[in-house]
Amino acid sequence: MSNLPVEPEFEQAYNELVSTLEASSLFEKHPEYRTGLKVVSIPERVIQFRVVWEDDKGELQVNRGFRVQFNSALGPFKGGLRFHPSVNLSILKFLGFEQIFKNALTGLSMGGGKGGSDFDPKSRSDNEIRRFCQSFMRELSKHIGADTDVPAGDIGVGGREIGYLFGAYKNYKNIWEGVLTGKGGSWGGSLIRPEATGYGLVYYVNHMIQYRTKGAESFTGKRVAISGSGNVAQYAALKVIELGGDVISLSDSKGAIVLAEGVKSFSKEDVDKIASLKLKHGYLHQLHASDSEFSSKFQYVEGARPWLKVGQVDVALPSATQNEVSAEEAEGLIAAGCQYIAEGSNMGSTQGAIDVFEANRKEGGQIWYAPGKAANMGGVAVSGLEMAQNSARVSWTFEEVDAKLADIMETGFKVCLDTAKEYIPAKETELPSLVGGANIAGFVKVIEAMHNHGDWF
Fold first, then answer.
1. Residue 2: per-residue pLDDT
2. Mind telling me which residues the site (Important for catalysis) is annotated on (predicted)?
3. Sheet (strand 340-342) strand order
């Protein structure tokens, strides 16, 4: 294996999956699944290409473009496109690998993939972004299609970028098809798509709370720490507020916003201000410095994540990026009374943090951890619903999509729960391992389909 490049993010995702499979009775009951693991861990296809485009000064620029088509056993490759300077093959392989099993847990017919570029849209004009998207799609269009690979948005790829990408695809291929999700509502998009990951995250945690308390508790009165301030964090915060919880933090790459003394919660209006700021690619410190009403309610903590800055906390929802909760912060959350942590981001916790959470759970402690591949699958679930609407040339109402999303999150929670009970030995006082249940359930579904296709034997 020494001839392979070092890929720390992908290796972390792989090791996290394997550690839970090994700790269960899965390989004891099905030793042949070890062969399936070898196959599923290698992408079906990795596409890498150059993206040459012209900036507003007429100067040539070049970026790297990628698409990792990881697994199509359950349906077309499905996963987002990320435009960010940090993008590299290791990150995209980790995201694509996670996406395989996340998509499997939705119960919808979707494979797993991921793609993007090291292009940074934050520093570019609308015209530059349009020209970049057109050049990026010129190559990507050769490898995707409604029944082959259906990308979506991710960090740096919102409604504007999806529109430019879709228009370029339509022009290059001379076909209108549901090749991208996250489209505008008037041209094939689904209602609830912007809200889906955040809403689904909160629905999943609500099932955790109700299962643990036998229906006696909900989000009402819970202190909820959230990281991030993009779509996932914003809509998770709004849903928590709607369900009676108190949102006590948000953050971005520059620092965290936490409640000032005597303030109970962010309000819907506070979240709306942050949403407006983020549409303009602003930072939280700018809002804190320019809006006296806002700054009177919140403290800004420069260069920090919120986990050790919020005092007592009941629920933690990492919703920014990978590895945003360390082992030290995990210990701090437990000391602060946190009972539930669920990832709105992909691989939001380091392996050290997961080990802390799982050790506490095994000891009969208070914290219960849900991994991103289960807790944040609401976004891709509604992308799958958008694909279904495009195929049938229909549009569903907000209420219809929201109800389907809620059902998918409930089913996904129960699958994780039941699988953990079946394969992971536990004492009577232990809560089931949701990370183990999610990994095993997604893995088994995918490799059984691959076996049926003759991809391993």
1. 59
2. 154
3. 298-302, 255-259, 246-252, 223-226, 315-317, 340-342, 368-370
Query: Cβ–Cβ contacts within 10 Å for residue 352, how many?
Result: 16
* Domain covering 42-181, topology: Rossmann fold (3.40.50)
CATH 2.60.40.2890 fits 196-370, yes or no: no
Q: By the 8 A CB rule, do 137 and 168 touch? A: yes
- Decide: helix, strand or coil at residue 249: strand
Flag whether pLDDT at 443 surpasses 90: yes
Q: Do domains 42-181 and 196-370 have the same CATH topology?
A: yes
Written as six digits, the tokens of 348 are 């939001």
Q: Give 143-199 pLDDT, tens digit per residue.
A: 999 999 999 999 899 999 999 999 999 999 999 999 999 999 999 999 999 999 999
432 CB contacts (<8 Å, ≥6 apart)? 416, 417, 420, 421, 424, 426
Token representation of residue 216: 């006696």
What are 340's two structure tokens? 């539930």
pLDDT in tens, 226-278: 999 999 999 999 999 999 999 999 999 999 999 999 999 999 999 999 999 99
Binding site as annotated, residues for substrate: 78, 99, 102, 153, 383
For the chain, the residue count is 457
Residues 6+ apart with CB under 8 A from 216: none
Known binding positions? 78, 99, 102, 153, 197, 231, 383
Please state, in angstroms and rounded to a whole number, the distance separating the CA atoms of residues 78 and 202: 23
The residues assigned a catalytic role are 114
Domain boundaries, the chain: 42-181, 196-370
Has this prediction a pTM greater than 0.90? yes
Work out the average pLDDT over 85-108.
97
